[in-house]
Amino acid sequence: MDASIRIVIADDHHGFRTGVAELLSGEPDMCVVGQGASAAEAVDLATTCRPTLVLLDLDMPGGGINALRAIQQASPLVKAVVLTVSASEDDLLAAFQAGASGYILKGVSARQLTGILRAVATGGSYAPQPFTALLANDRVTKM
User: Fold this and answer.
1) Looking at 1-5, 25-29, 68-72, 123-127, which range is the least confident one?
2) Which of 74, 6, 83, 24 is nearest to 44 (CA)?
3) What separation, in Å, do the N-terminal and C-terminal C-alpha atoms of the chain show?
4) DSSP-assigned beta bridge partners for residue 131
5) Which DSSP state fits 131?
6) Which domain holds residue 95?
7) pLDDT tens for residues 101-133?
8) How many Cβ atoms are within 10 Å of 20's Cβ, its own excluded?
9) Percentage of the chain lying above the pLDDT 90 cut
10) Does residue 140 surpass a pLDDT of 70?
11) What pTM was estimated for this model as a whole?
12) Which residue in 100, 123, 138 sits closest to 91, CA to CA?
């Protein structure tokens, strides 16, 4: 199968980022086209590498939410997915308001991660089960 899902990964933890990149690069339909460690690098890679989606950490230099906003403004067709340790309702709401299509908690299995990314790449969205009621209650509006 052709590597049709082009992915940029932005996370300031080098070991984690390269591990995720290795995992995703092993999938026949996925290709990691860029890696960065800051919001500025994420935005640059999202505009120059033409990814299908950007996988972002929230807690990186420059801030993941700032990167989300800038990516949505510069490249509105690029889907953004947050991959974070934060189980904060406020962070989830901020991410979706900034334009995220997905919010994944670190620690998710490899199978779940790749499945979620495939779903988002084809137009779906994802939030962990405890948060789905928030999204269904229309508390999230795109800004």
Assistant:
1) 1-5
2) 74
3) 36
4) none
5) G
6) 5-136
7) 999 999 999 999 999 999 999 999 998 876 665
8) 21
9) 80
10) no
11) 0.89
12) 100
CATH number at residue 93: 3.40.50.2300
Contact 72, 96 (CB under 8 A): no
- Under 8 Å between Cβ of 68 and 40: no
CA distance 52 to 67: 16
Long-range CB contacts (< 8 A, 24+ apart) of 45-49?
45/8, 45/10, 46/8, 46/71, 46/74, 46/75, 46/78, 47/71, 47/74, 47/75, 49/6, 49/8
Q: pLDDT tens for residues 87-103?
A: 888 999 999 999 999 99
Q: Report how many domains make up the chain.
A: 1
| CA proximity to 64, closest of 30, 88, 48 | 88
Positions of E strands within the chain: 5-10, 30-36, 53-56, 79-84, 102-105
- The pLDDT value recorded for residue 87 is 87
